[in-house]
Amino acid sequence: MVLLGQDWAWRRELPGEGLRGGAGAFSWGRRVLAWNGPAFREVARAAHGYDDGGCVLGERDLVLAERPAAGTLGRLVFLAAPAYRAETIDEDVELHECRPATLFGRSGFLMVHRAQQVRFYWRDRGRWRMREIYSIYTPSRQGGLALADVDGDGRPDIFCGNYWVRSPEWFELPWRIFAINLLSTTPADANFVLAPWRGGVVALQREVAGAPLRYFARPADPRPLWPEVADGSFTAPRAVAAAGATLWIGHAGGVTEWPSGRQIVAGGPVVALLPGGIVVSADAVGQPRRR
Question: What pTM does this model have?
């Protein structure tokens, strides 16, 4: 992330894009853009755009969800490089979060469906398979998705919303859920952006104006609630990236480095933090542009 903010000028406005999200060297809204330094090219588009969530598999393949003409449930698609033709993975999906993952030798991706259900998809003998990891029922939308070995058993566990989800010993066994915090009174409370950091996890509330950066420190026994340290104030955080002892937080006012509090970029809402810089749109918070 050493280049963060240096390419601000050329990433500030992407005409007709209506940005929703980004990962790796890609951003998406009504269309998908592949970035190469300051240059970009369109590789795919959907009639009604894509959901916010998405991820890059391998070097250049993509997982996204096409939005429907009406309602919220669309088509989950795999876009393989270099042609990026949409291959159906699943139907009636609402994609909020997505992360590449390898679980018990199966390579695929984790996603959060309808802000409450964690799923794992992988390809087996040419067909896409799905396993439900856990469905979370609270008054709040469950936002954020990250992998970390929380309990030190050598297997990847999952952070999602208020919880960490412990991996079983075998693929066929059930996963077990533990609460990290109890911020779930309203629908917006647990709609986080998350990042593992300093052995714990950082959480920022996407929809709570002026919400602090919350750091939850992993206790020796990670099963009870985790102690919290809160600091700062951010509006509409959409992205967080961690490198060593430093965090970069993309929010409605730009990008802030933490814990220094230094404003790296100011002037516009940030949708995604990409390896070479940031992706910003004047209408990133709110409705996407229609052209």
Answer: 0.90
